[in-house]
């Protein structure tokens, strides 16, 4: 090989590395954003990135596009490692034609998706795009379709993570929506099907891009996003942390880490955490933190549907998925959003061989016209469907309230759970005492001279009969009533026993989840 050949290669590589040129790179930095290559460099282990398709260019000659051909065509794709583990990554380059999506842009991503699926490694998308390249018409739209197809086929096989680091509009939002986790950067990332101008033209509403589809909106209200990052570096660090809880693919288990937290550790604090008053609040996260390996809990969707808590943690170094009601917010009721949040997380854990621990304290499903008309029945059924379908080890711990349909839904024994435990403070009943008494004894109360005193008497009897776990334990619906202090060692021992669990669902093409 001559020096001429090497010089040409190096020159073309250097041109490709410059993206859209110095001016556009400078503008990207002025907006508080990194370039595609800077993001990949920060995300991956040093020196591990192997780029694919560096010299790909678009093939459109109309509309003046022949003079706007850049190596890479607006996306950087390739393989590398995170903490020594292989990953596939693509990063849209906003400095090249606004990172717009084209036929060749799509081909690069789709090629990477196919390779990631075939090799069984996670794929990470760093999104920063102005949307479909208008000049390419149907070519770009077909590219979206090819990309979406791979998203669906890879679902539940390899982890798919999307990091929104700039705009995403129109059909392009479905690429991240079809992945397992969406991370958004505060103040710089947006997602919406129709932008502010279209919204104003059609509805007359005036709204900014950030208020319409910014990171805060999608983390707190829509539930589209799972993590909110204050900066690009924080977002990329979240990816590294998250992948530490996931296996490379669905045929593997998550890696176990060495822990210095004793498996037999007991916490006296758990004796006092549940208040004496039925309607008093407490923070379920304190229970979770006390039970799992210290500093191992990674909450998912912490700002959305805060009446439910989900996330990953470790028990004796092994990864577990946590699902819990949150009495500190809306008394821990289940509603539409909480149902969607819980069901999605259960399915992720089941797909990637992660055992489920469920901490129960809920008075039931949220009543109201809006909930009923919004389909709370259908959404609540998603929890039931997800728990029953899941074949990973499943353990529930009832801390206090487990009422009505919510008791059934929250990983009860009847949901094919492996083990149901309860604290002595557990209350398992069809409904709350006051409501039950007013239904069961409405005639007696209506005829009484002192209905308030009689109601109090009936309520006390109802509480004595049902507001404890022992009736359920006698009937075998609860496997054991445990000392709260022993929760951690009991769960670790149970998980160790269940680690070899094998369970099969009936053969079928797929079930019909209530969506």
Record keyword descriptors for this entry.
3 domains, 515 residues, eight-stranded mixed β-sheet, seven-stranded mixed β-sheet, 2-enoyl-CoA Hydratase, Chain A, domain 1, single chain, 20 helices, alpha/beta
Give a description of the structure.
With about 525 residues, this protein is of the alpha/beta class. The protein has three domains: about 5-245, 2-enoyl-CoA Hydratase, Chain A, domain 1; about 270-425 and about 470-500, 2-enoyl-CoA Hydratase, Chain A, domain 1 (Alpha-Beta Complex), CATH 3.90.226.10; about 430-465, no CATH class. Helix content is about 40%, strand content about 15%. It is built from 20 helices and 15 strands. The strands form two sheets. Strands 8, 9, 10, 11, 12, 13, 14 and 15 form an eight-stranded mixed sheet that branches. The chain has a seven-stranded mixed sheet with strand order 1-2-3-4-5-6-7, sandwiched between helices. The termini are far apart.
SSE map:
Elements: H1 3-17, H2 22-30, H3 36-43, E1 50-52, E2 75-82, E3 85-92, H4 103-119, E4 123-127, H5 138-154, E5 160-164, H6 174-177, E6 181-185, H7 196-203, H8 209-213, H9 215-222, E7 227-229, H10 232-243, H11 284-291, E8 298-300, E9 308-315, E10 318-325, H12 336-351, E11 356-362, H13 369-373, H14 376-389, E12 394-403, H15 404-409, E13 419-422, E14 427-429, H16 433-440, H17 442-447, H18 451-466, H19 470-474, E15 480-481, H20 487-498
Parallel strand pairs: 3-4, 4-5, 5-6, 6-7, 10-11, 11-12, 12-13, 12-14, 13-15
Antiparallel strand pairs: 1-2, 2-3, 8-9, 9-10
Helix pairs in contact: 4-5, 12-14, 16-18
């Amino acid at each position: 090989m001559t020096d001429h050949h090497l010089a040409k290669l190096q020159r073309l590589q250097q041109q490709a590395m410059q993206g859209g040129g110095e001016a556009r790179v400078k503008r990207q930095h002025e907006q508080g954003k990194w370039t595609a290559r800077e993001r990949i460099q920060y995300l991956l282990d040093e020196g591990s990135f192997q780029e694919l398709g560096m010299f790909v260019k678009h093939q459109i000659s109309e509309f003046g596009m022949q003079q706007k051909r850049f190596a890479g065509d607006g996306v950087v794709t390739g393989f590398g490692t995170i903490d020594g583990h292989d990953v596939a990554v693509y990063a849209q380059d906003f400095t090249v034609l606004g990172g717009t999506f084209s036929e060749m842009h799509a081909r690069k991503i789709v090629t990477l998706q196919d390779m990631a699926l075939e090799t069984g490694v996670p794929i990470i998308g760093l999104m920063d795009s102005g949307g479909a390249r208008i000049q390419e018409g149907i070519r770009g739209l077909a590219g979206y379709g090819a990309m979406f197809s791979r998203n669906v086929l890879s679902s539940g096989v390899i982890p798919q993570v999307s990091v929104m680091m700039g705009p995403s509009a129109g059909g392009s939002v479905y690429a991240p929506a079809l992945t397992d986790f969406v991370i958004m950067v505060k103040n710089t990332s947006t997602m919406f099907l129709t932008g502010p101008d279209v919204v104003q033209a059609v509805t007359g509403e005036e709204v900014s891009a950030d208020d319409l589809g910014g990171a805060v909106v999608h983390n707190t209200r829509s539930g589209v996003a799972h993590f909110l990052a204050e900066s690009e570096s924080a977002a990329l660090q979240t990816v590294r942390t998250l992948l530490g809880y996931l296996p490379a693919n669905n045929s593997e288990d998550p890696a176990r880490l060495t822990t210095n937290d004793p498996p037999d550790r007991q916490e006296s604090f758990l004796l006092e955490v549940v208040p004496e008053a039925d309607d008093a609040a407490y923070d379920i996260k304190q229970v979770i933190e006390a039970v799992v390996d210290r500093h191992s809990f990674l909450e998912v969707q912490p700002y959305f549907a805060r009446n439910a808590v989900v996330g990953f943690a470790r028990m004796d170094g092994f990864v577990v998925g946590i699902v819990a009601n949150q009495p500190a917010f809306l008394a821990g009721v289940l509603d539409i959003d909480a149902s969607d949040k819980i069901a999605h997380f259960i399915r992720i854990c089941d797909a990637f061989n992660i055992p489920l621990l469920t901490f129960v304290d809920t008075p039931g499903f949220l009543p109201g016209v809006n909930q009923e008309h919004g389909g709370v029945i259908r959404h609540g059924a998603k929890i039931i469907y997800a728990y029953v379908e899941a074949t990973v080890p499943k353990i529930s711990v009832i801390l206090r309230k487990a009422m009505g349909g919510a008791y059934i839904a929250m990983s009860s024994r009847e949901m094919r759970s492996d083990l149901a435990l309860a604290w002595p403070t557990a209350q398992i009943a069809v409904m709350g005492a006051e409501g039950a008494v007013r239904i069961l004894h409405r005639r007696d109360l209506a005829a009484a001279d002192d209905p308030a005193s009689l109601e109090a008497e009936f309520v006390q009897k109802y509480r004595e009969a049902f507001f404890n776990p022992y009736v359920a334990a006698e009937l075998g619906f609860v496997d054991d009533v445990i000392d709260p202090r022993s929760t951690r060692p009991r769960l670790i021992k149970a998980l160790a026993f269940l680690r070899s669990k094998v369970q099969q669902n009936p053969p079928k093409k797929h079930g019909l989840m209530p969506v």
